[in-house]
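Fig. S4 source data, part A: sequence.
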Amino acid sequence: MKMRYLSFGLFLFGLSFEASVFAQSQELYVSRTAWLRQSHLGGTARYTSLGGAMSALGNDPGAMLDNPASSAMYRVGEWRGSAGQQTDNQKVSSGLNQGAYVHVFDVGLGIRASVAGGYALESHQTSPWNLYGTGSVSWVDQWLANAQGQTPEELAAQANNTYQAYYEYIIDYDPSNGQWTPGAQGGPAATVESIKLQEKGGVTFLNGSMQTGNASFGITLERIWRSSDWNNKIIEEGFSNSGLVQRFSWTTTETSQWSAYRTRVGFLYRNDTPWRFSIAWRSMATGTRRDSITSLMVGESNLMDLVPIKVYSHRADDWTSPWEANIGLAFVHDKFGLGTAQVHIQPDGWMQFRLGVEKRDGPWSYRAGYRYTSHTGKYDFSGEQTGSLGMGIRGKRWTIDGGWALTLREGRWNSLYVIDEWDTPLVGTKAVLTLGYRID
């Protein structure tokens, strides 16, 4: 059995892998950054149960991350902490998803100011999406077709997965006639392909605002981070015993991490009528994004030991998230409750709509909300919908709020390395408990 040109192949792989993989369609490269752009993370129980439509309301740390001017609605200072439990496709995670402190003081001349600081966290996990098949179509056939007319050295220079298949004896090359033959012969008895996606993010913020007359103004400085992890695994087994390879697996992992700073500015107007209006703008954010790809191919043979081949590549570059604007409108009746609506837009047409209602009954409050997110790219979300419920009770100094939300997402995902399009459905729930304590 001939020896593979391991040193030569890996040398060429290392030189050209990064350029080859990341030179694929720029459209794909941009579309897989959708999670990095999301407008808000975390949130208190009240924010969650009202669908996040709180820009024109205030008195909530979650609202500050949409409209900095909303913190001017506080009459006294407050500590507030939120703990949540999130279930995404039966995977449960718990943690402190938001915390904040607000301090209020009078400046004089009819001006009241506030300063606040805090953090927010969130994550999503798709369920593994599996495709089961039989021997009618095999990855071996695709790799053979890709290899025809090329030498192993030419394959190595292209830094593609066909060369990995050659190294693992899944396909074989005869230098005497330049012909390629399958090392894993016949159609596989079973094929399983699976994908899963995990997204995480967080923000820490410092907020300042002031109110004079009926108008409030605010500014927030944020440090944000996001990450996404995509994992694809292919297993084919049950090939003919006349071939060298009887089973192989191929696992590809792609990771994107990004962190940056950005600012928000906001305006809120309220007068003696029940109506409130708000408008806010979030700046672009440029930070370093680090992408890495790991590809591992393992062949199994009854005749000899096969050494797995693992290829790793990474790159770091500046990446910019777009600016975002939101407009909010609320109708607040101090005795009976409120209704609120909000829309977020980004320059490429991305939009998010939020609606919320709250019914008040003495110290008790009952809430419901809805949020719709439009598609975020050709190969990403086809839309996300969230419905929410909640309730709360307030004392002289303390508040206790609970919120629950159900999120449905049907999306598409396209890898930079494995050019296949996948369904990535998400069914997630979130339960949040928020405790607040007012400070005179």
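Fig. S4 source data, part B ends here. Residues 78 and 438 are 4 Å apart (CA to CA).
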